[in-house]
Structures are given as structure tokens and as C-alpha cells.
Amino acid sequence: QVQLVESGGGLVQAGGSLRLSCAATGRTFGYYRMNWYRQAPGKEREFVASISRSGGSTSYANSVQGRFTISRDNAKNTVYLQMNSLKPEDTATYYCNAADSNYWGQGTQVTVSS
Known about the structure:
The protein is 0% helix and 50% strand. With 114 residues, it is mainly β.
């Protein structure tokens, strides 16, 4: 069993930065590739970024490539999403997910004003 809790969302102006965190409980955190997804009002949930179990491999959606960085600290059971050069279209609720599982966090709201 893994429980995921996101934090770090908020209101920021366009061009600003935020760092999201996703803290996991359970001793199996390191077994999972971890993902970040987001969902804007009226839209489907979309993939944002993914990181391998060791942290050595990452992938990103084209829309965030070069602006967002995913990382993890397995000793702290935490995955991060550093978001730079934020745009209004990044406004969404951001969720972390343990890949290939039904483990999802409750989400954290990110709002980017123009």
C-alpha cells in the first residue's frame, strides 16, 4: 500500500516558478516509476513527466520539456516537480502517481496568472 500526498501548489505570475512535492508512505516507494499528471478544468488528465525507480531516466510531455524537471529522493520517499517559466496554460491540478498502479495523490492546485 502506498499513499501519496502532494504539496507546493499555489498562485504564481507567468514566468515564475513553483516546486511541487509528492510524499509517499510505505516501504515500496522505490519499486515504482513515478509520474506527474495534470488536469485543467473541462479537460482530460494529461501526462506531464515521469522518472524511473533509480531516478536515472526521465521523460516529459512536449508542452513542458525544457521548463519542468522531475526528480526523486528515495531516502525521503519523495518525488518533485520543479516548474520554471510557468505559463497560464500550465494552470491545472497536479497529481502524482505510482506508475502502473491505482495509487494517486489528492492533487495540488497550480494557478498561473497572465
